[in-house]
Design a protein that fits this description.
single chain, alpha/beta, N-utilizing Substance Protein B Homolog, Chain A, Rossmann fold, 2 domains, 8-stranded mixed beta sheet, 4-stranded antiparallel beta sheet, 12 strands, 14% strand, globular, binds S-adenosylmethionine
């Protein structure tokens, strides 16, 4: 019940999923559920959104005539039931019964209850053949597949789209001794220096080293930008979009004097809490970065800018339904202004590391190419693939990092993939 309502808010109103699944302030239908039902609701929503184009295709191939325009609520009931039948390890008959009950409960949909029953029962019977044919349908919405194909070519676009069907594994960044922690946590040491946990369902805080602040959760790709600074001992660095603080923590543990700038006070609170657990220190400044004025020019800036987040669809499958091309264009414009502002805050010879978790060149390669065309006082410092063994394929011809979920093959029983990230180094001449 809650799942189909929340799905409606994502798909019809473009409401991001995270906020609605917040235990304190989330959607009332979700908050009314028990812990176990909340977990099931999250699993249903993630499976539904991850496979939505394929579920929609399967449902419409089984309907002689499309559902009427006014039956959106019914469509969401069917889609969440189909996700359970096709992609979740839950009893199919319970999913069918619940969907029929939901149709009966809503006066607008009551007349469709028999259809819901027949359609979903057929889906249970034909499950294997539906799944077999599902690969004929793009796993991501067409608008996104088109943008991926234009940027990466058709074959790579499909590999990236397929990779986003897998939930992201959990990666950790450790303060020190990655080999030792890999052994203790039975994790795989990745070429980024991150640790990847084996399939994990427990609670993160119960893992060894969490309460001692020895590590934090951070996708392998997200750990790359801070590492691009090299030696940071004694350097003054501002992290301009800092919360929840994964990169601030890296900069602080690399020995920098860090100013963490964050405009959202809720997120700044989380950043402070995270730093406290990790026993790392940074000056936290709660402000819009455009109003941030350090007392003296800085040695460096990390600008991990707000973006369309299309590189994080493995963990946020709602992104492809809440964001679109106009958001990418708008965010690219904001990032272009942010990076120009960041360049005013560093000293001559200082660097700005620019990064974000978008897969779209408009927010990465293109944005930097436009900046370099316009500014002769800024140069790009090429990242040397020889410094990044195992990640050479993620460094483009211009010396920028471009990771995608299709990179980093699975190995030794550990999942593959990493977030889509763009990162580059700019130096002020
Ligand atoms: C992609 S997240 C940053 C993630 C962070 N760097 C990390 O590694 O944990 C972007 C952050 O920038 C903040 N932000 C967005 N616009 C901002 C602005 N104009 N000034 C300061 N912070 C901003 C958002 O509130 C959000 O916390």
């Amino acid at each position: 019940m809650a799942a189909s309502k929340i799905l409606a808010a994502v798909v019809d109103k473009r409401t991001p999923l995270d906020g609605m699944l917040d235990a304190g302030h989330g959607n009332p239908a979700y908050r009314a559920l028990s812990e176990a039902d909340r977990a099931l609701c999250r699993a249903i929503l993630n499976a539904t959104l991850r496979h939505l184009p394929r579920i929609d295709a399967a449902l419409s191939s089984m309907l002689d005539t499309p559902l009427p325009e006014g039956a959106r609520a019914l469509q969401h009931v069917l889609t969440t039931a189909a996700a359970q039948i096709l992609y979740l390890d839950v009893p199919s008959h319970a999913a069918v019964d619940l969907a029929v009950e939901q149709a009966n409960r809503d006066p607008r949909n009551r007349r469709f209850a028999k259809l819901v029953n027949a359609l979903l029962r057929r889906m249970v019977r034909e499950r294997d053949s539906i799944l077999e044919h599902s690969s004929e349908v793009s796993p991501v919405p067409q608008w996104f597949l088109k943008r991926l194909a234009a940027a990466y070519g058709k074959d790579e676009a499909l590999r990236i789209a397929e990779a986003q069907l897998e939930p992201a594994p959990i990666d950790l960044t450790v303060k020190s001794n990655p080999e030792g922690w890999a052994e203790r946590l039975k994790a795989r040491l990745l070429p980024t220096g991150s640790l990847r946990l084996a399939a994990f369902e427990g609670s993160i805080p119960s893992l060894e080293g969490f309460s001692e602040g020895e590590w934090w959760v951070q996708d392998a790709a997200a750990s790359i930008p801070a590492k691009l600074f090299g030696d940071l001992k004694g350097k003054r660095i501002a992290d301009l979009c800092a919360a929840p603080g994964g990169k601030t923590a890296q900069l602080a543990s690399m020995g920098a004097e860090v100013i963490a700038v964050e405009q959202s006070s809720n997120r700044a609170k989380r950043l402070r809490e995270n730093l406290a657990r990790l026993q790392l220190s940074a000056e936290v400044v709660e402000t819009d970065l455009f109003a941030f004025a350090p007392s003296a020019p800085l040695d460096g800036i990390l600008l991990d800018a707000p973006c369309s987040s299309t590189g994080t669809t493995r963990r946020h499958p709602d992104v492809l339904f809440t964001k679109g091309v106009s958001d990418i264009e708008k965010l690219a414009g904001l990032q272009a202004r942010m990076v120009r502002h960041a360049l005013t805050l560093v000293k001559t010879g200082g660097v700005v590391v620019f990064s974000n978790c978008s897969l779209d060149p408009l927010e990465g390669e293109q944005l930097i190419a436009d900046l370099l065309k316009e500014r002769t006082d800024v140069e790009r410092v090429a990242i040397d693939p020889a410094d990044w063994p195992g990640l050479q394929a993620a460094i483009n011809a211009d010396g920028e990092f471009r990771t995608t979920p299709a990179m980093l093959p699975a190995a030794d029983g550990y999942a593959g993939g990493m977030d889509g990230f763009f990162a580059c180094i700019l130096r002020k001449r």
